[in-house]
Amino acid sequence: MTHESVITTWRQLLHPAKSWALFANGTCVILMEPADDLAEQAKELLSRYGPVQAGTPAGNFTTIDLDDAPGWAVTSHHPDILTYVAEDELDARDDLTVGLFGRGKRDQDGHELTIVHVEDKRASS
Fold first, then answer.
1. Sheet of strand 71-75, all strands in order from the earlier edge strand to the far edge
2. What is the pTM of this model?
3. Which domain holds residue 67?
4. Is the residue at 124 inside a domain?
5. Residue 47 falls within a domain, yes or no?
6. 5: Cβ–Cβ under 8 A, 6 or more apart, which residues?
7. What is the pLDDT of residues 11-33, one digit of tens each?
8. Which letter, b or e, does each residue of 43-57 get, where b requires 16 or more Cβ atoms within 10 Å of its Cβ?
9. Which has fewest Cβ within 10 Å: 69, 91, 105, 109?
10. 125 found inside a domain
11. What is the pLDDT confidence band of residue 122, given thresholds at 50, 70 and 90?
């Protein structure tokens, strides 16, 4: 899985008028009310809502089987933060394994905060 393939996947999955940022491990932050600095806004959201804290809502997730791309989206306790898990990342296909893996990727992104792509749709909306 490359960053380019994940960017392509999120473009397929998200509404074309939405601005969003992609982090190094596949976590996407959708910016429903885009600010002047999209990258900084996405980092602020993910630093607050990305790291996993066991026993809190930050540990919650849902696994979504994708119709428009191979793999899954793993939700978080914030409705605008999702993590992509490609089919080739795991041997197991059950929701718990995929969800825990995706949650781990979100946690890593929430600590590292490395943005690899920003999709700015403000001018085209």
1. 63-65, 71-75, 81-86, 27-31, 19-23, 115-119
2. 0.92
3. 3-119
4. no
5. yes
6. 86
7. 999 988 999 999 999 999 999 99
8. bebbeebbebeeeee
9. 91
10. no
11. confident
